[in-house]
Amino acid sequence: MAKRKKWQDLTITDDYMFKLVMMYPHICKHLIESILHIKIRELVYLENEKSYKNHYDSKGIRLDVYVEDADNSRFILEMQVRDYGEEELGKRARFYQSSIDYDFLAAGHKYKELGGAAVMFFCPFKLFDGNRRVYTFRNVCTENKEITLKDGVVKVLLSSAGSPTDDIDPDVAAFLDYMNGKITNNGFITEIDDTIRSVKLDGTKEAGYMTFQMLLEEERDEAVEENRREIIRGMLEHGISIETISSITKVPEKDVIAISDEFSSVHKC
User: Is the Cβ–Cβ distance between 201 and 8 less than 8 Å?
Assistant: First the structure.
């Protein structure tokens, strides 16, 4: 099990701290505007099953930032701390974008009312060829790349490990530098760094982090236990003796017997 990171050691690349910082609307708004080169009138945080609860008091929490602007455009920002590989990362972005559309339509809106949708992943590792720091994807016609499908969807993958280029917004470049631990005299980054320092002095937020970590550990323990139970059920199904199962899995015989009794009662039904 990964060691729990201390509260005072959290940085912007820790998804929990990233979420807390992005809960400041003017910071989140400016970052989105700088990445997408758009203007946003106002942001609304969408609190539903995709977003956290303010005190992290429920399980199954996802740490993405999920917001909507005044023009019905929706945005997901996430700090991708794990390198899942290009294929899974692409499908993850696809799933997030489809979730945005589903939520919008489930709220009673019509197709013609669909606003824009943007998914932004911040990655502290190299992406694709490693030659860039920002990769923007839109639906482009294969036969004529000058034609773009007007579906309002954009996916942006940002890498702090990519090679710097001159074609990205200075504040975005400074943010990626900040992900690498480099603090510049950029005003936007200075504000973010000051915000993190202030957040770390907030005992309530620190307590929320500890609660969140405990919930994660509980979920991991439950997942491990369920996986172990499934393995034992499979061994029982193949006629392996309780003594042998206990020896192999290091689970006490009395617990294997209890699982066996559950397994037998289910099959009797």
Answer: no
